[in-house]
Amino acid sequence: MSSKVRTGSASNIVTATKTATESQLAALGIKKVKHFDNTRTDSHPQSRLDSVRAAAHAFRDYMLSLDKKVTCYRSINLIRTPYPT
Fold first, then answer.
1. Residue 35, Cβ neighbours under 10 Å: how many?
2. Helix (H) or strand (E) holding 58
3. 3-state DSSP call for residue 66?
4. Residue-wise pLDDT tens for the chain (85 aa)?
5. Engineered SS bond to 51: which of 15, 27, 33, 39, CB 3.0-4.6 Å?
6. Pair 4, 12: CB distance under 8 Å
7. How far apart are CA 20 and CA 9, in angstroms?
8. Which residue, among 39, 38, 33, 32, has the nearest Cα to 54 in the 3D structure?
9. What's the pTM value of the predicted model, to 2 decimals?
10. Straight-line distance from the first to the last Cα atom of the chain, in angstroms, rounded to the nearest whole number
11. Could you tell me where the beta strands, DSSP code E, fall in the chain?
């Protein structure tokens, strides 16, 4: 996966120019999170929300059950978009 670094006034911004394949990610030890697959297929918003919440709890339990030390942690700011009113 290649990336470009744009220098901004506040910080460097890295943007991916090519999506990595699953085999490239697997070589880095990165696996797809499948806990949320099919959680948003229902046509009713409340059912979708309930499914996502249940998957989030299951994902949290899974992550806590791994019992491995964290070797690296990084948080990033997400882009905020206004909700249309």
1. 16
2. helix 45-65
3. coil
4. 445 555 555 556 666 578 888 898 889 888 888 999 999 899 999 999 999 999 999 999 998 898 888 888 888 777 777 777 6
5. 39
6. no
7. 28
8. 39
9. 0.56
10. 38
11. 3-7, 12-16
The Cα angle at residue 69 between residues 33 and 59, in degrees rounded to 5: 25
Cβ neighbours for 48, distance < 8 A, ≥ 6 positions apart: 39, 40, 41, 42
Q: Which two tokens stand for residue 81?
A: 């978009």
Which phi and psi (to 5°) does residue 53 adopt? -65, -45
pLDDT of residue 84: 73
- Token reading at 58: 């299951």
Distance separating alpha carbons of residues 80 and 19, to the nearest angstrom? 23
Q: Write phi, then psi, for 15 (nearest 5 degrees).
A: -125, 135
Chain length of the chain? 85
